Amino acid sequence: QVQLVESGGGLVQPGGSLSLSCAASGSIFSIDAMGWYRQAPGKQRELVAFVTSDGSTNYADSVKGRFTISRDNAKNTVYLQMNSLKPEDTAVYYCNADVRTWALGRQDYWGQGTQVTVSS
Length: 120
Prior knowledge:
Structural class: mainly beta
Mean pLDDT: 96
Distance between the termini: 40 Å
Radius of gyration: 14 Å
Largest sheet: 7 strands, mixed
Low-confidence stretches: none
Order of helices and strands: EEEEEEEEEEE
Number of strands: 11
Strand content: over 45%
């Protein structure tokens, strides 16, 4: 069993910063891509950013230059540093990981979600 546990998030004023983290635990053999998605009320879940096991990154156009994704492979943890936040960044943010385990092979796992609210 693999679990993704997120932390961070909360309420911040426009222009402010927040940091999210997500730690994977369980019977993990390896983790390929790790990423963050978000879902605003009434909208579909969308990709925010992902990072591969070798450190390559990809960002949604809406967050380029403001958000930075990184990971610590030794800790099976992915981070999202969010700067210059805008009200339109308000959403529930979900961690995602492409995990290989001995028992189940390669599967996709999700965190429980953490709320980010940008408002004055």
